[in-house]
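Same chain as my last thread, 530 residues:
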Amino acid sequence: MKARAGIDRAFRIGEVDPRLFGSFVEHLGRAVYGGIYQPDHPSADARGFRGDVLALVRELGIPLVRYPGGNFVSSFNWEDSVGAPGDRPTRLDLAWRSVEPNRFGLQEFLSWCGEAGAQPMLAVNLGTRGIDAARELVEYCNFPSGTRLSDLRRSHGAESPYGVELWCLGNEMDGPWQVGQKTAREYGRLARESAKAMRLVDPQLELVACGSSYPAMPSFPRWEAEVLDECYDQVEYLSLHSYYGNEAGDRMEYLAAAEGMDGFIRSVRAVCDFVKADKRSGKTMKLAFDEWNVWYHTKAEDRHEAPWQIGPRLLEEHYTFDDALVVGSLLITLLRHADRVKIACMAQLVNVIAPIMTEPDGPAWRQTTFYPFLHASRYGRGISLDLRVESPSYDTKTYGSVPYLTAAAVLDEEAGELAIFAVNRSPTEGLELDLGLSGFAGWRVFEHIEYRADHAAARGASQSRQSRPGEEAAPGQELPEGDVPGRCLPGRRLPERRSDLPSLQGDRLVAGLAALSWNVLRLSAPARSE
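reply #2:
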């Protein structure tokens, strides 16, 4: 098959905010206890932070982490999570029917963010609580000294303010599963008044209002319109949440999931722009896609997990290669909307629908979805360019005609590099990509990273090769044969750096994209030497 695409250096979508490559840690399952925090683990430091997990988080280059929820935040009392850990109360977490010992809380999270090199994105409880708790939490975190709450923080060992800038005003407040569910008008007014009070304490805050819980909600998109009608002037971002899966067992439909994300973003953009016009506002609402990922493997199993445990095994997806391709396609979609989607959080970071997995007394390791996220985070920072694609397509029930090729391009002008991210969705045929480049005279291809399925992964899940936790192949090598029915497990095959680089003749690049493959083509400016 052949596909054509074109890039003009002058045609720009917008700057990629580094926070597009954020993540999420909720008090859910083993994300915290046994994930980022495990004091008795051999790699743990004096604060209980797992060093092996921190190393992988740093490898991903995560710039932002959302905390503490998620559904968890809607019945969370922040005061329970500060002070001496031994003096904190043990509570019931109503969201996930777990026991929360509060050994890891706000103080530990903010300290962990410093170690990970990530900006914190804190959520306030607008479910069971409201304005008072929100503005008091800002005072505790950000006010210098001389008040009860700022001095309380100092007595807990943080002399200087934490300076938390980014805040979520609740979580999924239209969801019937949410503790403290609200109507759009109720929530919009509460978000507005909470925002006003929080900004009276710290005028520098950036605030995120809740959008609908996901695009299939009956309340979508009227929820967005009514909420923004109440709080448009008080917030900078509107949130989007969506997860993708293959419950129906239709592979090609699943591989097209990014088309659904694209349509969702376009719909929310349209609602925001309608409210902007209706209010005669000069402000353009930005978007925070602060929950997205693949999630479907364990939904049935999770229903049978015994309640009221500390750190139960919930949502522990073991990802296949198809899942990695879908994650790559979703990242491409986010890059193609970089003008409006400024924040995004892959949910979540460790153990719970995550690219990183751990065992309590064992290692941490990378899942298949780790690699496309790593490449996008590492090479996808700069200016998103308008890459136009003409590709053979296939028909789907949900999305209509879907191109086999999806792609995005990011220009890093400071480094003098261009990165092209591309997924070939075809399970049987390679694609010859003919890419026109305008404004890149003299540039050259210096790397082609390719991540593709081997025959076992391509067949599906009846038999697969397995890596043991912590075991990984060298680039381009397969792991030992394993007789493992069910899902493909972590570390199946590392991305290959190809020596047979695509040809670049004048203003045209011709590259071969293998069937079912994630690709990163990297070009450098003439002055760059490799």
